[in-house]
Amino acid sequence: MLSGMGLMTGKVATVAPNTVDEPGEDVVARAKSERAERRGPFARMALFIRQVINELKKVVTPTRRELFSYTGVVLVFVVIMMGIVYGLDFLSALAVSWVFGDGTIVG
After folding, report:
1. Phi and psi angles of residue 4, each rounded to the nearest 5 degrees, phi first
2. What is the CA radius of gyration of the chain?
3. Residue 32 near residue 24, CB atoms below 8 Å
4. Contact 97, 105 (CB under 8 A)
5. Segment holding 49, helix H or strand E
6. The dihedral of CA 70, 76, 81, 82: what is its sign?
7. Which residues are 5's β-sheet partners?
8. Residues 6+ away with beta carbon under 8 Å from 93
C-alpha cells in the first residue's frame, strides 16, 4: 500500500512544520455558540450592526448603463409573465364557460 509514502521511493511523506490545522465545523459552531451565550443583548445588537455595516461596504452600486440594462430585463420579463398569466386566465375562463355555461364561447 502506498498511502503516506512517496511515489515508489519508500520514503514516508511528512507534513510541513508550519502548516495550520483548520478546526472542524462542529468546533467552530460550538465556539460561536459559547461566545454568543456570554454576550449580553446590547453586545449582540452592536455585533449585528457592525456585521451589517461590514456587509454594506461590500455592496457595489451599478453604473447608469447597468441600471438601465437591468431595468429593461425586468420590464421585459414582467411583460412576458403578464402575457402568460393573461393567456392562462383566458383559457381557464373559456373552459369554465364551456363546462358550466350554456356552451357559448365567451370572448
Report:
1. 80, 5
2. 31
3. no
4. yes
5. helix 41-57
6. positive
7. 12
8. 106
